[in-house]
Amino acid sequence: MAGMSVVYIILNVLFIAVCLGLVLSILLQKKSSQGLGSIAGMGNTETYWDKNKARSMEGTLEKYTKIGGTVLFVFSIVLCLVR
Q1: Running DSSP on this structure, what letter comes out for residue 30?
Q2: Given this model, what pLDDT does residue 35 score?
Q3: Could you give phi then psi for residue 42, rounded to 5 degrees?
Q4: Chain centroid to CA 8
Q5: What is the DSSP letter of 32?
Q6: What is the pLDDT of residue 24?
Q7: Could you list the residue range(s) of the whole structural domain that residue 66 is in?
Q8: How far apart are CA 55 and CA 42, in angstroms?
Q9: DSSP state of 6
């Protein structure tokens, strides 16, 4: 039982670190100004900047946010199962 509590504490610390990293990556992203107009297809102009977005800082932050969200989801399931 003592070994399981150490694993649980380590997983909780990692979970908190992933949460903080995810919050930081979300806060560092630039706000999207399209709003609800993007749902209706209004203003759907693709520029050179949009095509090369994956190579920019915003593209990297979006990628890390998706990875962080997936890791957070997996950690939450693992924490529920370990408990």
Answers
A1: P
A2: 57
A3: -75, 135
A4: 23
A5: P
A6: 93
A7: 1-9+57-83
A8: 25
A9: H
CA angle 54, 15, 66 (to 5 degrees): 20
pLDDT at 17 over 80: yes
Q: Residue 31 is encoded by which pair of tokens?
A: 């706000």
Residue 5 lies in a domain: yes
Does 49 reside within a domain?
no
DSSP code of residue 53: G
Residue 37 lies in a domain: no
Structural domains counted in the chain:
1
Length of the chain: 83
Determine contact, residues 19/72, Cβ cutoff 8 Å: yes
Question: Is residue 83 assigned to a domain?
Answer: yes
The three-class DSSP label of residue 43 is coil
**Residue 18 and residue 14: Cα distance in Å, rounded?**
6
Tokens matching residue 17? 């670190």
> How does pLDDT run across 21-76, given as a tens digit for each residue?
999 999 988 776 655 555 566 655 566 656 666 678 888 888 889 999 999 999 99
